[in-house]
Amino acid sequence: MHYFFIGAVSLFVIGLFIVGAVMDKDDMRDDD
Predict the structure, then answer these.
(1) Is the entire prediction scored with pTM above 0.70?
(2) Which residues cross the membrane (predicted)?
C-alpha cells in the first residue's frame, strides 16, 4: 500500500515537472 502511494506521488511530481517544462517552452515560443 505504501509503495503504491509513493509510486503515485512520484508519477504526479514527474508529471508536474514535465508539464511545467512544456509550459515554459510554450511561453518562450510566445515571446519569440
Answers:
(1) no
(2) 6-23
